[in-house]
Structures are given as structure tokens and as C-alpha cells.
Amino acid sequence: xxxxxxxxxxxxxxxxxxxxxxxxxxxxxxxxxxxxxxxxxxxxxxxxxxxxxxxxxxxxxxxxxxxxxxxxxxxxxxxxxxxxxxxxxxxxxxxxxxx
Length: 99
Ligand SMILES: [Zn+2]
Known about the structure:
Blueprint: H1 8-14, H2 17-24, E1 36-38, E2 53-56, E3 62-64, E4 70-71, H3 74-82, H4 86-96
Antiparallel strand pairs: 1-2, 2-3, 3-4
């Protein structure tokens, strides 16, 4: 990891939320435009119907109206889905996205 990429702000600027969620959410419909969009099936509970999980393709925020899981950015998404600490989530994103 390059020293210049170790801050949260840099991670966020290098990984657009729209690209991130398209890669992470297999059931997400093709995104059109930004803002809050249907994220497909919620990865935080045993979701069988789309429609309750929303992602913000500009900020990376996410919210499930069924199980109540929410967060403000893609780091929070990785932390909660994979049970990682903040530094672990940063490292995972850095490795997976080749930063
Ligand atoms: Zn949910």
C-alpha cells in the first residue's frame, strides 16, 4: 500500500461507490444515475425479495428498510458485512481494488 493512499478520503476517491456496489452486489439492477438506488438483495439478512436494500451511489451510504442495517460509506459496508475492524476493512479494499 502506498503511503499516499492510506487515508479514508483517498480510498473513497479511488473507489467510486457505483463501481464498488456493482462489484459487491450481484443482485443490484444496473445503476442509472446517482443518489439512492435499489441495491438488490440485502447482504445483511436473509433477503429473498429486492426492494428494501438501498445504496447511495454518490456517497456510498447504504440502508436496509427490512433489517435496519445502515452505514455512511463503503468502508462501513465492508466492516459490517465481513465483521472487520476499520483498519482491516481499509486493507481489504486496498488489496482487492489494487490501490
Ligand atoms: Zn437487510
